[in-house]
Protein backbone atom coordinates (compact mmCIF):
# COMPACT_ATOMS: atom_id res chain seq x y z
CA UNK A 1 0.00 0.00 0.00
CA UNK A 2 1.16 3.46 -0.84
CA UNK A 3 0.96 5.99 1.94
CA UNK A 4 0.18 9.56 0.96
CA UNK A 5 2.12 11.73 3.34
CA UNK A 6 0.99 15.27 2.77
CA UNK A 7 3.07 18.15 4.09
CA UNK A 8 1.27 20.77 6.17
CA UNK A 9 1.83 23.39 3.45
CA UNK A 10 0.26 21.22 0.78
CA UNK A 11 -2.63 20.28 3.06
CA UNK A 12 -3.27 23.94 3.88
CA UNK A 13 -3.22 24.86 0.19
CA UNK A 14 -5.50 21.94 -0.71
CA UNK A 15 -8.01 22.94 1.96
CA UNK A 16 -7.90 26.56 0.78
CA UNK A 17 -8.54 25.50 -2.81
CA UNK A 18 -11.47 23.31 -1.73
CA UNK A 19 -12.97 26.23 0.18
CA UNK A 20 -12.63 28.46 -2.87
CA UNK A 21 -14.44 25.87 -4.99
CA UNK A 22 -17.27 25.55 -2.45
CA UNK A 23 -17.73 29.27 -1.85
CA UNK A 24 -16.14 31.39 -4.61
CA UNK A 25 -17.98 34.66 -3.88
CA UNK A 26 -17.64 34.45 -0.11
CA UNK A 27 -13.91 34.94 -0.29
CA UNK A 28 -14.06 37.86 -2.71
CA UNK A 29 -13.80 40.51 0.00
CA UNK A 30 -10.99 38.65 1.77
CA UNK A 31 -9.09 38.29 -1.48
CA UNK A 32 -9.47 41.99 -2.21
CA UNK A 33 -8.16 42.98 1.21
CA UNK A 34 -5.31 40.45 1.02
CA UNK A 35 -4.29 41.85 -2.35
CA UNK A 36 -4.06 45.39 -1.01
CA UNK A 37 -2.56 44.88 2.44
CA UNK A 38 -1.14 41.37 2.37
CA UNK A 39 -1.86 38.42 4.59
CA UNK A 40 -0.16 37.88 7.93
CA UNK A 41 -0.40 34.13 7.41
CA UNK A 42 1.57 34.39 4.18
CA UNK A 43 4.15 36.61 5.87
CA UNK A 44 4.66 34.23 8.79
CA UNK A 45 4.63 31.19 6.50
CA UNK A 46 7.44 32.64 4.40
CA UNK A 47 9.57 33.46 7.45
CA UNK A 48 9.52 30.11 9.22
CA UNK A 49 9.75 29.80 12.98
CA UNK A 50 12.99 31.77 13.38
CA UNK A 51 11.80 34.66 11.28
CA UNK A 52 8.49 34.72 13.13
CA UNK A 53 10.33 34.86 16.46
CA UNK A 54 12.46 37.73 15.23
CA UNK A 55 9.35 39.55 13.95
CA UNK A 56 7.67 39.19 17.35
CA UNK A 57 10.82 40.32 19.14
CA UNK A 58 11.21 43.39 16.91
CA UNK A 59 7.53 44.26 17.44
CA UNK A 60 7.88 44.05 21.23
CA UNK A 61 11.09 46.11 21.23
CA UNK A 62 9.47 48.69 18.94
CA UNK A 63 6.47 48.94 21.25
CA UNK A 64 8.74 49.46 24.28
CA UNK A 65 10.74 52.16 22.50
CA UNK A 66 7.59 53.96 21.36
CA UNK A 67 6.08 53.81 24.84
CA UNK A 68 9.25 55.35 26.32
CA UNK A 69 9.38 58.23 23.83
CA UNK A 70 5.67 59.06 23.87
CA UNK A 71 5.07 58.80 27.60
Automatic annotation (TrEMBL):
TM segment ranges: 47-70
Pfam families, alphabetized: DUF6366 (PF19893)
Highest taxon of source: Bacteria
Keywords noted in UniProt: Membrane, Transmembrane, Transmembrane helix
Record's keyword annotation contains Membrane: yes
Basic and acidic residues: bias regions: 1-22
InterPro entries, per database record: DUF6366
Disordered, as annotated region: 1-28
This protein's name: Phage capsid protein
Amino acid sequence: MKENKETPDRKRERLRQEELKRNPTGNLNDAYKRENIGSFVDLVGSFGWRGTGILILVTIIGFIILSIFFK
